[in-house]
Amino acid sequence: MSSISIRTLQTLKDKGEKFSVLTAYDATFAQLAADAGIEALLVGDSLGMVLQGRDSTLPVTLEEMVYHTAAVARGNARAARPALIMTDLPFMTYGDIETGVASARAVMQAGAHMVKVEGDDWLVPLVESLSRQGVPVCAHLGLTPQSVNKFGGYRVQGREEEKADAMVAHAVALADAGADIILLECVPSPLAKRITEAVTVPVVGIGAGADTDAQVLVCYDMLGLNTGHIPKFVKNYMTDGRTVPEALKTYADDVRAGTFPGPEHGFDA
């Protein structure tokens, strides 16, 4: 069975079929997730919080992202159907085109198939440059954790009409610049629906309602391994005596069937 690619995910969107994304930080979990039917693995800078115990993603380094990407790539390669791997470029490693291209080169050479960057239309020149050089890009809008200090905390974004309209425009601009995926985090469900309909590329949501083309969760969250605040958009799949592989498969199946997320996992305008 062939690996999941950008073309695979685009075909799913075009057919109106949903797909699942899950974070992965190591080889063992990567293989388990891919074998459970997860279409894309996100090597997230969330590892700073869930693996390293930090209070934000900001201290994570490019070298750490390269290390974890390489581990995920080795495990994913052993799966029956390898998933697509996307890797976060960490804080302050893509503020200009030259730096961003160098950072992207590092994680792509480690085994990523796509890079993820946080921001709005200021990213357009970088996205255009990466796209020209054959690097697929996921553009992350809404609550962008690397900007937590600018936002004044982890807050839903896009509730005001002006900001919602701007987010739609930013998504369109980034897709037009060559972004292959748009990721929306903690935005009102109606706004996520607008953006999903406004762009032709797949839209992945987390706390963005059920109308996006795909869903992503942090693996520790969906396995019920939270030790503090549990976000509204999280569902614990380690219930009813499930094993980890069963939980992963149930999550993938629920996303595909449209039964996750439910209304209780989203945010109103």
Structural summary, described in words:
The protein is α/β, with parallel strands linked by helices and 269 residues long. The chain has helices spanning 6-15, 27-35, 47-50, 62-77, 97-110, 124-132, 148-151, 161-177, 189-198, 219-222, 244-257, and strands at 19-23, 40-43, 84-88, 114-118, 137-142, 181-185, 203-206, 214-217. Strands 1-2-3-4-5-6-7-8 form an eight-stranded parallel beta barrel, surrounded by eight helices. It is globular, with a radius of gyration of 17 Å. The termini are far apart. The model has no long low-confidence stretch (mean pLDDT 95).
Please outline what is shown here.
By secondary structure, this protein is α/β, with parallel strands linked by helices.
> What percent strand?
5-15%
The geometry reads as: globular
Question: Secondary-structure element sequence?
Answer: HEHEHHEHEHEHHEHEEHH
In DSSP terms (H or I, runs of 4 or more residues), the helix count works out at 11
The SS-based structural class is alpha/beta
What is the typical, i.e. mean, pLDDT? 95
Q: Report the radius of gyration as a whole number of Å.
A: 17 Å
Number of strands: 8
**How much helical structure, as a percent, in the residues?**
40-55%
Q: What is the end-to-end distance? A: 42 Å
Strand arrangement, major sheet: 1-2-3-4-5-6-7-8
Largest sheet: 8 strands, parallel, barrel
Are there runs of 5+ residues with pLDDT below 50, and where?
none
